[in-house]
Design brief:
The chain is mainly alpha-helical and about 100 residues long. It folds into two domains: about 1-65; about 65-95. It has two helices and no strands. The chain is elongated and about 95 Å long.
Length: about 100
């Protein structure tokens, strides 16, 4: 009977050790999730800032009049895409 009690006590100690490790892992997981969310927000903010800067750069390039033929073609395609989208929207509004 003494041996059985010793095994039970040993199992309880191991269980307590595992529970402690589990709680630590949970805390670390929560910390990492919080950090991930923070990084996602920072990335979204940086992407928005980048988009604004790209628009400003495009506007600055247009104002200088120094057009690279490739850039001019890209801009023309982008404008054509916007015009098609506007036409689709207008058609939906009139339908």
């Amino acid at each position: 009977m003494s041996q059985l009690n010793e095994h039970i006590i040993e199992l309880q100690e191991k269980l307590q050790t595992l529970l402690k490790a589990y709680r630590q892992v949970q805390k670390e997981n929560q910390r990492l999730e919080t950090e991930l969310n923070s990084m996602k927000q920072l990335q979204a903010s940086n992407n928005a800032a980048l988009s604004v800067l790209e628009q400003k750069l495009a506007a600055a390039r247009m104002s200088t009049g120094n057009w690279d033929p490739e850039e001019k073609l890209k801009l023309q395609k982008k404008i054509d895409t916007y015009l098609k989208e506007i036409d689709k929207c207008l058609a939906l509004l009139h339908a």
